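Provenance

Sequences were taken from public entries as deposited. Structures were produced by running a predictor on each sequence independently, with no templates supplied. The record for Selenium-dependent hydroxylase accessory protein YqeC from Candidatus Flavonifractor merdigallinarum is shown for reference.
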Amino acid sequence: MDMWEKLELDPERVRAVTLVGGGGKSSTMYALARAARDRGKTVIVTTSTHILPHPGIFLTDNPQPDHLRACLATHGVITLGTLGRADKLCGTGEIGVCKEVADVVLIEGDGARVKPLKVPADHEPVIPPESDGVIAVAGLDALGQPIGDICHRPEQVATFLGKSLEESITEADIAAILASPRGGRKCVKEGMAFRCLLNKADTPALEAQGQVVARLLAQKGIRAYLNHYIQEERGGACWF
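Predicted structure for Selenium-dependent hydroxylase accessory protein YqeC:
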């Protein structure tokens, strides 16, 4: 079962996917890219904010359609972006063009500085209107950890949950963040497929706790899926 199947998404219909949240966005984006390529599809990886370039994927900063088509014909999977601060890529904003020339477009829509859980800031996430689907990712390793230690922008998370920075993250907290239009569902428009990926379910205890989170989300009509990546898969370097 590849990542598209795991998330019950059809890349024929959900062709442009934006990933938000924390705890495994990049790994998931490249897992989707690899699976789409294995299905014979061309893929553009890009960002609406900032990402580190993948060392094994051809990079271009030229969004002209003919150029992108030529790159895709040669490489199959490419990254579109311009190098900015701290060697990170900025997006070019040409998601519509990307959808015209590639079968699948994958967009990283916010950052979490490798923290497993976050509540978006006022300017986040940046979900392009051309997106057909959104995947909100959270790391289950946040469970049982103090908000101040484990979350990106912890003060924002504490305010959202009505907790102190010293209090620990619970299953209900993760479900509340992912389900909220101020959290994982922020800027998700009607008609966009929405999925939650509960990542780092790599021990029996975390898997059991992840099932609790998934049930809480199911009560709100939200599909959630458990996942974990082995060490060499983290960051997606092994797939390209």
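The first strand starts at residue 16 and ends at 21.
The chain has a mean pLDDT of 96.
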